[in-house]
Amino acid sequence: MKEYNMILKEKAKKALHKKAAYGSDLELSASVSDQKEQPLESLDNLDKRIKEVSLLSGMITDETKRSGSFYQKGDSVIYEKVQEAYSGKVEIMKIEDALQKHSWLQEYWWQMVPVDMDKYTAQVELLGRGGYFIRILPGAKVDKPIQSCLLLDESGSSQRVHNIIVAEEGSQAQIITGCTVSPDIKNGFHLGVSEFYIKKGAELTFTMVHNWAEDFHVRPRTGILVEEDGSFINNYLLLQPVRSIQSYPRAVLAGKRSKVRFNTIVYGQGQSELDLGSLIELKGSGTTGDSISRALGTEQSNIIMRGRLKAYNNKARAHLECRGMLLSTEAVMDAIPELSVVGAPEADLTHEAAVGPVDEEAVEYLMSRGLKQDEAVSAILQGFMHTGIKGLPEILEETLSKIFSNMSEKVI
Amino acid sequence: MLEIIDLKVKAGQETILKGISLKIPKGETHILLGPNGSGKTTLLKVIMGMGSFQITGRILFDGEDITDLPLDERARRGIGIAMQKSPVVPEVTLGGLLEMIQEKHGNGKLEERIEALNCHYLLKRGVNENFSGGEMKRSEMLQLIAQNPKFVLVDEPESGVDLDNIVVIGEALKSLLKPPREIDKSRSALVITHTGRIMEYLNADKGYVLVGGQIVCSGNPWDLFEEVNKHGFEGCLTCGRCSHEGV
Ligand SMILES: Nc1ncnc2c1ncn2[C@@H]1O[C@H](COP(=O)(O)OP(=O)(O)O)[C@@H](O)[C@H]1O
Ligand SMILES: [Mg+2]
Fold this sequence. Notes:
Chain A is α/β, with parallel strands linked by helices. Chain A is 19% helix and 41% strand. The longest helix of chain A is centred in the C-terminal third of the chain and has 18 residues, at 394-411.
């Protein structure tokens, strides 16, 4: 094990200056804050302003509606708890503790994301602190969402976390996770490695809400392995300004009949540079994948929606859909769908990409029913963003419609 | 209720309406006939305030000059339209739109009307998204009813619709325009019909024939329709029986 760690560190060191395949190249500081945060007794003790930003990213303080919670502030994990009714069903803990507790976890560590992928994964390996380990135990049906929040505030403007999520055989769960910053923080960066293991017959819905700040750079690195009959739904929402974010999760459908669905909803504003996409590798027989993105480009935002489906099996089917609306003459949007079939002539891959304006005739039509112009546009925009989301946990709908209505107020 | 005075409408270089004048008093339903391309739809759109046309002349509604009033203001004053062909709005569900209309105009409960117009199964779909001709017209009627307008513009409610649906749409239109005593009786309407079939459901008071952007004939709607059936629209240009002076 020590040896394995040595090898990882060596690889990481060599990759410390390796540029990423996509996204603008960042000069990262290598400083790590030494500030330690006090653990929280209860989520209720969070500062009021922090509560508000946490809520916007889906984290609620009323834990009766959650099966468990994880909270990390800067480099310190300040809260981790599994509700009593779910003990024996769910494990939630700081990644370092999990590595201590479960020696087998070593086999999941840097398996779905290569440690030397680029300078960002390298930094996470060499300077990383915290991140969560969430495990849903075999056969557990977890009816209330597990929630997590990664927050950055004055205590340090950078975060490098490594998360591992294991959905054991036959388990069912949903995780809502928010990444956010306290209201007065403006710049910094977040590097997050997440590795997902969806075991035989397991079903996991993972919803991630990102709320960053204008001068923030974000580089998530995500890998997902889905075994036989497993199903993974990934909802990603980015509704606040950010300086740059580049993310390209890779899902490997290894097992027969395994499934994945990516729903991506992006609202580009300010000078945000957003480069988002996903790669689905269909290896098992009967595997299906869907990758659906909706993007709204306003102000000077620059959005790239990527998506790649790669089929290795004749009995694989997947669909890719990128749709964007551009609301500003200064915004830029690129939709780049890619299909690739490797030695599987019967695989069925399709894609659809469209970038267009808000349909004026539709706006006029709604106005003829008495809606004001801004109401009509907002109804169309909200609907446009919303139609992308399928399989979204019902419990999130309320939070989301709140975000959506705030959003359309700003658009008009 | 509605008065149009010497309305001329151009789209780009093309003149579509060449001086239309008409008056529709409170509680009356008037019918507009005319060949394809004669400007019927344009007239309705211009009354509603839709499209981008160059307009001269005046449109008065309840005594107020609404010629320059924005579209949504006209809707809030009580003008409603059922379009010949309405756009697809995949982003907004029919149910969602009805809710918004209800919020604006608050026309009581819609349940019965949804039932009568057989629209239940359409509520969760995007407005007009893959709707058949009949579904589109039924949804238009339902929206109009929810909107509860004082003045109704209806553009070819029977086009692209099978006989069963004509009955459903006709009955809905009938109840909207000539409702049983207890409901507001003062609604007026201007209805475009191509086939005349919808007239069986309307107690129409007057009709016009529009040819080449001009009203060439007006009078009893049934008589007009018979004339047109016998001699075609061309006949209207030459018959000389009715004087459309001062219609
Ligand atoms: N926006 C427009 N721009 C240019 N021409 C138009 C426009 N709208 C309608 N027209 C033209 O005006 C004429 C009348 O159209 P329309 O009012 O739809 O006729 P109708 O409903 O009687 O069939 C047609 O020749 C049509 O092509
Ligand atoms: Mg027409």
